[in-house]
Amino acid sequence: MPKSPVPTDTESRLAQSILRKNLQVKPGESVTIEAWPHTLPWAVSLAREARRLKALPVILYEDEAAYWDTVNSGGAKVLGQKPDHEWAALAKTDVYIHMWGPGDRVRLNSLSVRDADQLMAWNPAWYSTARKAGLRGARLELGRPYPTLAQAYGVDLRTWTRDLVEATLVEPATLSRSAAPIVKALRAGRRVHITHENGTDLTLGLAGREPQANVGQVTPEDRKRPFRMLTTLPSGSVRVALDESVADGVIVGNRTDYYDDQIATEPRFEFAKGRLTSATFASGGSKFEADFQKGGKGRDQPGQLAIGLNPKLHNTPQVEDLEAGAVMVSVGMNRSAGGKNASSLFAWSIVAGARVEVDGKAVPLPH
Questions:
Q1: pLDDT on residue 3
Q2: Intervals of the chain under pLDDT 50
Q3: 3-state secondary structure string, the chain?
Q4: pLDDT reported for residue 164
Q5: Do 204 and 63 reside in the same domain of the chain?
């Protein structure tokens, strides 16, 4: 088994926290855990702790080298098929734990569109079966740290992993307390004003849409929605779809934008009369420009507002929007948060340490 990047006692403590506090696993429940070589130590700990709860775990293992051997041999279509025996197990699963794989996301993103589409062909059927099963579960960001991706991001692999462990251990109750006043303000408000000494001064509109508090647990209502039966861990944010017609001013990001295997820094979005008029970056702007060109109708409209809650994160790859006090403003798509914008573009700028007011009243942000 691969060497674990963290001590064994930490693995056990983390598994206990996920199973007990996030997923609330009960005796007799069936627990399915995905594993790849880089996540196998976590999967083993989760299975061990599940048995201590008198649950019934099974680990689905895929080997990284074997996976890429199949891809290189022209077998992407085979990997994208829906195995009936695996789907039969999925249909009988109460709790599902997903850890990102394959580990080499840089290599995965270098594949042709044809190969990528074939590899992911199983995805719609997976969610359809999971929804019918009524399962609940979690996507663990602990599956993302991998040598090639850490190199692409320019971060230390062990530090990245450690930060994710500590942030995943933050209890849902703690995140819920931080979320409550933010949800209340956004639910009742009409205008949001964001300011920061770095030049951020942006006014946005709210349209009476329900804010979504993501605190690391799956509610009965979540399980009725197409993709919400799996919570993401670590968690910690309040998100709301913005009024697509209201945005004036500028947001200057002071957190990195982490894409699948690229980064952009210091994103600066300028708005006037509800439209994005300028988007510049200190570095990495080519990704935005390419996506914007393909974004279609609504690509220049304000999309979502998100406020981070998790005190153990700081500019952490792929969860940079969850950092306590981080304020994210996106452009483009917001239908997943209850908005009307169906653009294919989802681009964002995040400023931490900002002041947020709703209808002239300061919103208490966690730190």
A1: 62
A2: none
A3: CCCCCCCHHHHHHHHHHHHHHHCCCCCCCEEEEEECHHHHHHHHHHHHHHHHCCCEEEEEECCHHHHHHHHHCCCHHHHCCCCHHHHHHHHCCCEEEEECCCCCHHHHHCCCHHHHHHHCCCHHHHHHHHHHHCCEEEEEHHHCCCHHHHHHHCCCHHHHHHHHHHHHCCCHHHHHHHHHHHHHHHHHCCEEEEECCCCCEEEEEECCCCCEEECCCCCCCHHHCCCCCEEEECCCEEEEEEEEEEEEEEEECCCCEECCCCEEECCEEEEECCEEEEEECCECHHHHHHHHHCCCCCCCCEEEEEEECECCCCCCCCCHHHECCEEEEEEECCHHHCCCCCCCCEEEEEEECCEEEECCEECCCCC
A4: 98
A5: no
Place of tokens 């951020």: 200
Both 149 and 215 in a single domain?
no
Range of the domain at 237: 172-362
Residues 136 and 156 grouped into a single domain: yes
Cβ atoms within 10 Å, residue 132 = 10
Q: Which of 194, 179, 247, 200 has the alpha carbon at shortest distance from 358? A: 194
pLDDT attached to residue 221: 82
Distance (Å, whole) CA 104 – CA 126:
22
- Whole-prediction pTM: 0.94
